[in-house]
Automatic annotation (TrEMBL):
<feature type="domain" description="Dyp-type peroxidase C-terminal">
    <location>
        <begin position="211"/>
        <end position="396"/>
    </location>
</feature>
<dbReference type="InterPro" id="IPR011008">
    <property type="entry name" value="Dimeric_a/b-barrel"/>
</dbReference>
<keyword id="KW-0732">Signal</keyword>
<dbReference type="InterPro" id="IPR006314">
    <property type="entry name" value="Dyp_peroxidase"/>
</dbReference>
<keyword id="KW-0349">Heme</keyword>
<dbReference type="GO" id="GO:0004325">
    <property type="term" value="F:ferrochelatase activity"/>
</dbReference>
<feature type="signal peptide">
    <location>
        <begin position="1"/>
        <end position="24"/>
    </location>
</feature>
<keyword id="KW-0456">Lyase</keyword>
<keyword id="KW-0408">Iron</keyword>
<dbReference type="InterPro" id="IPR048328">
    <property type="entry name" value="Dyp_perox_C"/>
</dbReference>
<dbReference type="GO" id="GO:0030313">
    <property type="term" value="C:cell envelope"/>
</dbReference>
<dbReference type="InterPro" id="IPR006311">
    <property type="entry name" value="TAT_signal"/>
</dbReference>
<dbReference type="InterPro" id="IPR048327">
    <property type="entry name" value="Dyp_perox_N"/>
</dbReference>
<keyword id="KW-0479">Metal-binding</keyword>
<comment type="similarity">
    <text>Belongs to the DyP-type peroxidase family.</text>
</comment>
<keyword id="KW-0575">Peroxidase</keyword>
<keyword id="KW-0560">Oxidoreductase</keyword>
Amino acid sequence: MSRRRLLGTAGTAGAAGLMAGAVAGGAATHATTGHPTPVTSVGATAVPFHGAHQAGIITPLRAQAIGHLAAFDLASGTGRKEAAALLRRWSAAAEAMTQGRAPAGDDQIALDAGPCSLTVTFGFGRTFFSRTGLAHRAPAALVPVPRFPSDAIDPKRSDGDLWIQVGADDPLVGFHALHVLQKAAAGTAEVRWQMSGFNRAPGATARPKTVRNLMGQIDGTGNPEPTGKDFARTIFTRRGGPADQAWMNGGSYAVVRRIRMLLGPWADLTRTQQEEVIGRRKDTGAPLSAPAGASETTPMELNRFTRGGSLAIPADAHIRVAAPESNDGAAMLRRGFSYHDGYRADGTPDAGLLFITWQADPEAFIKVQTKLDGADHLTRFIRHESSAVFAVPGGAAPGEYVGQRLLEG
């Protein structure tokens, strides 16, 4: 048991003793003997930092409770050497924190917490390569997402030279990781934008379930399964490309979109109308083409009709328009976090989804989004307000830092 974890369990036992003393009307003392049993395994769960792929893409595949996304721009005069030193510092700090250890210069914000499934993922934006003299090694697939007619993109909250995704099952652990990484960037890179979101807390349901978004809809059904034969080919880049892009072997591309939900107009719809917009039942997530008693995993039947002769899943339903069958097989792994950033001037919630898709080529997202923007009924109830694409290299081996094969190759 690590010193950090030991302190965490002792603190839990002390708090329980304090409450018992207060109820009894006497003075409480911290427990100093025995071996307290942790009340949960959530805090003790650690995700390996090193591996063939970076953590935070498919490990853990379930949604983490909190997430922070941050993009950085390199400071003036910063080049390849300084960028390499920054990735070395970031990787060392991330490796320590994901395993529940204090990073160098730790300010002890999360001293009494375990790793809490913390993952830290690093990526490079298109502009990173020209600013570090590596334009000749930029991946051909790293192209910007075009602006679509219904977009309302804020350039100040889009793009960036570097990107960090932090995920965890404890808010303090997640904040601490982001804070440590931001401080480590001082003098080398400055925050361009930062967004924070959340999902259902572990243990909130009797068994793991697909999360619901702020529209109340089950969100994430139909994601590619790691056991599927095409999973790795869909999500991760493959070996065999140009030698100057071998640093992306085992990597992926992250498309990041901040999607505000128009929750007022959405709430004005009846439940039946909402289900027709999505194409799934709101309670179970089952497709509208499925019989009673079906679940969210029941395959949808795009060619099924109702007794009245209409399509069971409407022609403009979200799941029909987004389905791989409707997009020449284009597929991606969708992960995200809900967000709520207060209220706008008109009193409506500034809330929605921090939408992250992972794919071996951003063209998959672009193809699907092109169709969604023109044919998806859901478009009337959402606004895409920021956009970015990042090349996320493969994982670092022990003794390496993320991006080393690019920056020192």
